[in-house]
């Protein structure tokens, strides 16, 4: 793998460990995992339930910190960043797409997409411009004043993707983005992600679906917190 | 970002109507009560603060019994003598004599109760603004009079018509209207409708007798003088003018000054018929306001926290997108500020609607200073305190969650959180139980007082004041005609009916070295019979003993005891009223003690003597038709005092006037404790909804496994009622302590029965149970298939 890399990888994790402790049991979610992901890659992470996929995605997304090991993002070691620093790095670089969309019910389509721009301090006029641009691209402009409950699942996920990309992130993390969709809507979402990747965005996607995984360049298979196999798609 | 906060706050409110309603309703009620109490308290403390020269105004008080409060009633010569003797200290001295007079203009005649005869400087000393006329000269001419706006309208239709018109006082005095004063505000201890110069009375017999009492003296001190400087001269002053009297009475009279601002809260038992406040009531009100606000805030905290858990997805998503902790804290506090703001706005509206009712409850008109800053400061303060206090806990609690947990909706209210919430509920209900106990005890005490045997017969007894010259001059005829009318079983003329006025005098008594101080009743021979008193030794006054009028006296049991005698021993001993008798009187009888004073006061010594001084006629009716009897009395009254309107009251209604403040407190406390319980139950309702919702799955599983609705109801209610039970246990000893203290106000008081506490507990419990079962029942009755599928 390393031979393929022309430049420093976007993500380089080494010996990453994560435990979950309850009062009596300690569960290992990630067991000395090491992975590299290059800029512009589209990577699928697969594996059975409980293998540590989501934990890995959370750490990559800087929503959680590892218990041991190193995580270098764009040449910056972030494993032990404070919450504030992580949040700062996250909001400028990473977009998230979830299985259950996680749109805020009290906000309209437009306002949901606008939210990341508010937190990164983009001026109001610029926000309107960018939100409209991305809604147009996702073909949901006509739904801009609707609330999430008024949309179909496919539309909701498109709004969620619009929200994830509105800040022009370098990396998109998608956690089973088609899990709540029928196959037709699921394919639409996968096409969207592929488009984004072709335009240069790095994408890491957790999925159970072999079908979806075929859209990626590379599949990393996890079992019990370790990488057991990598398939490179051609 | 701010816009976004407000937007989402508003939509949240709108979306969760039940929660928003509970929030806003509870908070609105809390704020409204606080506002009401705030207005009441500011009014109490603003009394007399509008007088421009207020800080240099004092009222002169005279005392002669170190054990009793001084009285404000002085006689005519004090003011001119003080002004004359201490010109370096006193700038102005104004006498104010409160009286009631028959005032007539043409066909219109009223017995006016709020008439002041004053020195001409009255409107110069006090800042009661005149709408018409000149404050400095309005009362210069003895034949002038100033009316308040309302009084002017009453007689003349308008203030314009009133000026220059001549009204008649007691059919004899002609006074020309020279000024119209603004109506006296409720925050003034002085309260008048009509003011005219006291010069019309200065030549009356008795006016210039030093020992007499009947008017107030107000002094305006010079800027450089002080209260203590002037008071240091008073011993000398009294020696100069009253040494003869002091010798005669065997008592030392002294003078003191009360600053104008202090008059209102002066001991109300100084009996001066001006408005007085009660600091205990103020304290009780402040406590209630704080307690109710606390309950409302606790609701707010608990419900917001619970609600916030339901919003965990939003919180998580915001964090994923880069929201920092303080963003979220600001957002949640912002939302509670918004709620507080809305509640405040509704409260102000509600207050405006409730004002007339509230004034009625208080017994006077509150003046709301809408154009002054304090009320706005108070409102802003409430919004900030409530917003911050109630909003901070959920804000800090929620913002601390990790975004992953929040997104998974796995936010769990930890054990610590549950404990805190439970403690808050305990606190709420402790307060409610406390207020209920208070209400029951007060009601119980009032009932006790109402039904306590007072030692005299108050049934079917009418009181008619002898308060004008006509009735006074014809009082004998009035009494005789009543006795002959056939509707009356007996009539007695006296100085004070039970619960009324009983002046303290000094006596010289056989075998006593010290002067003996006792309350006095000056009455005719029908006194004992009319009031149904019991003679326990000797005999009643009797016409068979020609000398009784001048030589006889009756004591009550306490008076005999204080003189060191048993009732039997007292008979035949002599006693002399230092102020009123030339020669000693013989004690011919002793009556059993009866509660001639309010039950707040201990039994006092009473000397009943037939000296002159008749202020009321107490008329015991024959059993039967009361309206017919009243009609007969009115007819007789009209014969002896034709121009005066006939006014009467019943002796058993005296209760309502004597315990006016206590009755008011009882009403207020009932209302406020009802509100407190209601607000607390709103919170409980919210918690119950939350618990029921949270346990939907559990309930579903239990039902599938065969649990009955009753079982589930029991299960849900049990947990919710635990804090209520604990609250009752905590509140009881506190309630016992507080109410025991309150009861100390009464010399005669009911015991704190155990059932009061049980009743309060059961009541709270039932209300709480009712609140909870509403939601629990719904949860228990729900189809389990539905609840399990939704998981």
UniProtKB/TrEMBL annotation, chain B:
InterPro entries: ABC3_permease_C, MacB_PCD, Macrolide_Exporter_MacB. The chain crosses the membrane at residues 21-41, 281-303, 328-355, 375-398, 419-443, 667-693, 724-742, 754-774. Residues 20-234, 429-632 form the MacB-like periplasmic core domain. The keyword Transferase does not apply. This is ABC transport system permease protein. PANTHER family: ABC-TYPE MACROLIDE FAMILY EXPORT SYSTEM PERMEASE COMPONENT 2, MEMBRANE COMPONENT OF TRANSPORTER-RELATED. It is found in: Cell membrane. It comes from the Bacteria. It comes from Mucilaginibacter lappiensis. Residues 287-401, 671-780 form the ABC3 transporter permease C-terminal domain. Pfam families: FtsX (PF02687), MacB_PCD (PF12704). It is a multi-pass membrane protein. Keywords: Cell membrane, Membrane, Transmembrane, Transmembrane helix. Its main location: membrane. The keyword Nucleotide-binding does not apply.
